[in-house]
Design a protein that fits this description.
Elements: E1 14-17, E2 23-25, E3 35-42, E4 45-50, E5 55-63, E6 72-80, E7 84-88, H1 95-103, H2 121-126, E8 128-131, H3 134-172, E9 179-181, H4 182-185, E10 187-190, E11 205-208, E12 216-218, E13 227-231, E14 240-243, E15 248-249, E16 253-257, H5 265-274, H6 276-280, H7 293-297, E17 300-302, H8 306-343
Parallel strand pairs: 3-6, 11-15
Antiparallel strand pairs: 1-8, 2-7, 3-4, 5-6, 5-7, 9-17, 10-16, 11-12, 13-14, 13-16
Helix pairs in contact: 3-8, 5-8
């Protein structure tokens, strides 16, 4: 029996092969079809819309080739391409419950290819799963659906805040009567390279290089907290980050030091972040692109009064804090869902 169970339910769950509770359908090519309103899905998600369908109703889709470990539920008319299986003719099993059963399966364990991950219909059909009565299935699926809906709502809230902050960027960080070049009011300092063999998987200080995430950890730091960094090299060169803790600035990382006192560092960060695409456009080279210090130093920054800078940064900081709080809420919901998936099923 599962570790968690609704008190009104008793009795054994039945072990069954997937082939005994549903039928697996093969996706097909859609290029001979006309445009329409019926969505076409592949393993990467929505592709286009056509005028015919393969399934009309509730279905759970699972990848045949490519992304094989991300099942999804759909209700309505649907067409899938040949890299995506769909399911139908459910017997004693509710599609929404099966969707959550599928989320508990380690699909990569059944991968049949050494290159691009692949699954066969025969392999899926032989997998055994435990199934309770349909009323209990419905109760479990309803609970997990509520969590999924809450997670989806949180994601929409975050996207709305992101759209809001983009609009505020345009409004608050617009033109000014006064501009200064970045190199005129701060020191653009290149970091120090650490041998990859010296990096650790975990330690007190993270190491920033040319990426958007730490390249590792180190026992020491060379940059104080509350410092703006800009990626110098690699595919992410131009990425802007505000580092709230001490860290090690690597050989493909610029930091902005000794910022003039009439410049609010948070205002500067927000302006650079809002104009990240323009900073990234400064890159040169095709193999390992990089941004030259001289080009970065000539990047122009609008200069309102220090008081206005602080008002702008305070407004934007409040929105960013709200986004972070909403992201934290999503993490809580996701942890709850993982716990329930692990304990509501056998």
């Amino acid at each position: 029996m599962p570790n968690l169970r609704f008190p009104q339910f008793e009795g054994e769950w039945k072990l069954s092969k997937i082939s005994n509770i549903l039928t697996i359908g093969n996706g097909r090519d859609y290029k001979h079809l006309k445009s329409g309103e019926i969505p076409v899905f592949g393993t990467g998600g929505y592709m286009t819309s056509v005028n015919e369908y393969l399934i009309d109703g509730e279905t759970v889709c699972i990848g045949r080739k490519g992304t094989i470990n991300k099942p999804f539920y759909y209700s309505g008319k649907l067409w899938t391409v040949d890299t995506l299986f769909y399911t139908y003719l459910y017997k004693k099993a509710l599609p929404k419950f099966v969707f959550y059963v599928f989320q508990n399966i380690d699909w990569m364990r059944y991968n049949e290819a050494s290159g691009v991950p692949s699954l066969s219909k025969k392999t899926i059909e032989q997998i055994e799963v435990y199934i309770p009565t349909q009323p209990e299935q419905s109760k479990i699926a309803s609970l997990l659906s509520l969590l999924d809906e809450r997670i989806a709502t949180q994601n929409k809230i975050i996207e709305q805040y992101k759209s809001l902050i983009k609009g505020i960027y345009t409004y608050l960080l617009g033109e000014s009567d006064k501009y200064r070049k970045l190199g005129e009011f701060c020191q653009i300092k290149k970091g120090e390279q650490i041998n990859r063999t010296e990096l650790l998987d975990d330690d007190k200080y993270y190491v920033m290089n040319g990426g958007i995430t730490p390249s590792g950890f180190y026992h020491s730091y060379n940059t104080k907290a509350n410092t703006i960094s800009i990626s110098e090299g690699g595919n992410s060169c131009g990425y802007v980050q505000y580092n709230e803790v001490p860290f090690w600035s690597g050989g493909h990382c610029y930091t902005l030091d000794d910022i003039d006192k009439d410049i609010d560092d948070r205002y500067l960060f927000h302006y650079l972040k809002a104009n990240e695409p323009q900073i990234m456009a400064l890159r040169i080279g095709s193999g390992l692109p990089n941004i030259q210090k001289k080009d970065l130093s000539h990047f122009c920054i609008p200069m309102p009064s220090l008081l206005n800078q602080k008002e702008i940064s305070d407004t934007l900081d409040k929105i960013i804090l709200k986004i972070e709080l909403e992201k934290s809420a999503i993490l809580v919901y996701q942890k709850q869902k993982i716990y329930l998936l692990q304990n509501l099923f056998i």
